[in-house]
Amino acid sequence: MSNQLKLFLYIVFVVAIFWFIQSRFHIFDVKLGDAQQDTETNTQENIDTTTKPTNSVEIVTGANTSVKVNVELADTADERRLGLSFKKYLGDYDGMLFVFNTETNAPFWMKDMQIPIDMIFFDSQGFIVDIKEAQAPCTATYCPSIIAKKSYMYVLEVNSGFVEKNNISEDGSLVLHIETLN
User: Label partner for 19 (CA 20 to 30 A): which of 27, 88, 169, 177?
Assistant: First the structure.
């Protein structure tokens, strides 16, 4: 067998192994598709993100220090239902703020979540009523309900470890810096 044929077969073999591993374990974020369509989609996403208002919240901790978190709002039933589902990454000081019309004690769950999170529950006055740390995504066989100790009006979901890293406790409060609420 010639050296060129051996090289060709070796390359085919390596590509086949790579394809098998990628299709099985999704190690790399690789998309095969129309590059023009991807460029148009990315351009549209960039346009959309520049027109969205920048919302943030400030958590005042018990030690009278504050922590600013950039938030995406979930203030409609559909947005609350979707939540952070399918997100693979959340910045260190980014999160999602769930806003309800009145205080509630509805349970949360981690269906379709990709990352573990901390959850901070606030009442209508902005005071922390409960904290749930290191909530893991659902598994194929286990998906518990997450229920706050008291009624809440706002829930902030952030990366797991955020609460401990920033010394947030139940004597803290929330300050909203929100441009619009639905």
Answer: 88
Question: Do 57 and 40 have their domain in common?
Answer: no
What's the structural domain count of the chain? 2
For residue range 22-81, what is the model confidence (pLDDT) as tens digits? 777 666 655 555 555 544 444 444 444 444 558 999 999 877 789 999 999 999 999 999
Return the HEC string of the chain. Answer: CCHHHHHHHHHHHHHHHHHHHHHHHCCCCCCCCCHHHHHHHHHHHHHHHHHCCCEEEEEECCCCCEEEEEEEEECCHHHHHHCCCCCCCCCCCEEEEEEEEEEECCCECCCCCCCCEEEEEECCCCEEEEEEEEECCCCCCCCCCECCCCCEEEEEEEECCHHHHCCCCCCCEEEEECCCCC
Residues spanned by the domain of 75: 53-177
- Considering the domain architecture, whether residues 33 and 71 belong to the same structural domain is answered as no
pLDDT tens per residue, range 102-119: 999 999 988 899 999 999
